[in-house]
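Handoff note, outgoing to incoming analyst
You'll be picking up this chain. Sequence as last confirmed:
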Amino acid sequence: MKIGVLALQGAVGEHIQMLEKAGAQAVSVKLPRELEGLDGLVMPGGESTTISKLMHQYDFMEPVRHMGQAGVPLFGTCAGLILLAGHIEGLDQAHLGLLEITVRRNAFGRQRDSFEAELDISGVAEGYKAVFIRAPSITETSPHVDVLATVADQAVMVRQGHLLGAAFHPELTEDARLHRYFVEMVRESKATPTD
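Most recent structure output, in case you need it:
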């Protein structure tokens, strides 16, 4: 099982370490051709506008969108969540537009307002220490989206079928439970034949 980590910005090495700890072969993805043969893809945090520009510049946008539409599991964390979202407050156009949610960027404040919170993530982990850095929140979800965790009544983790999104940085902890969950999603996806 081979899972890529989009290596345009963010804590790529940390995601790779956590995926390997969770039992997957993990690779950094710097060019669109490196998406071929992947069983899943992690889209790390960073600055969503910058990552979007880089994805356009290096022709990642359509191949990643196609992966999502074809049922390949995608996991977006922080800025990666924003990139997956169908709607972004204050922007006319979404980036990938795959996840049926609306997000608010920097919902919890600026860099100096970064914080940690203990989350109970439905079906995944109890007492999970999550790191929020200029984090978005999820303000609306379609009926197809399951909210897995909230902070102060704001959704911060969701799943829609093969798409997983977290407003926080699971790679910045020693807790591999979230990455194990995504690896299991990928394993189940590989076991399920597609039409």
